[in-house]
Amino acid sequence: MIHTPSDDLLHLAEMVSGMLLRKNETVATAESCTAGLVSATLTCLPGASDFFWGGIVVYAAGAKVELAGLDPGLLERDGTVSLATTKALAAAIRDRSMATYGVAVTGWAGPLADDDEVVGCVFGAVADRHAVVSRRWQFDGDRNIIRLGAVTAILGLLRQQLVEPEDSASV
Q: What's the pLDDT tens digit per position in 9-28?
């Protein structure tokens, strides 16, 4: 299936890309529950190679360790879907790439979730050279609605960082 973003999502991606281009900055992604939808949304735009470095899909725990270089102890302690893991993924993709920003998303898109979480719980993080800013969101709906909500939320968080970078990490 080809991912065609809604007009609103495409507009958000265009705003983010325009800001990155004006600043001569780039972004790289590490995606779990969105499985590449953030990357697909950004690369729907012409000239995406001028601001999009690339991305990895780290759906399984092993991929988070092997592709992103996360410490297995972090995953054992905090889980594959957690704020700490998502922050580590954002920092890792930024460090492993030549991108200005690392963006990461993990979450429970359903139909099941971990014992401690509920379906629709999504974590997002944006790392730059100074800090990692992160958020937790809760979305209602089916798997596709949750995943598209996660894409919109993480691009919104990136846009916010491009407008007003925070000096320290936050939750």
A: 999 999 999 999 999 999 99
Instruction: Tokens 């705003």: give the residue.
Output: 15
CATH fold of 7-163: Maf protein (3.90.950)
How far is the C-alpha of 104 from the C-alpha of 88, rounded, in Å? 9
Statement: the pTM of the whole predicted model exceeds 0.70 = yes
Residue 72: asked if its preceding bond is cis (omega within 30°), the reply is: no
Edge-to-edge strand list for the sheet holding 132-138: 52-57, 27-31, 101-107, 121-127, 132-138
- Compute the distance between CA of residue 82 and CA of residue 74 in angstroms, rounded to an integer: 10
| Residue 112 CA: distances (Å) to CA of 63, 130, 148 | 20, 35, 17
Cα separation of 6 and 113, whole Å?
27
Residue ranges per structural domain of the chain? 7-163
Q: Could you give the 3-state DSSP secondary structure of residue 10?
A: helix
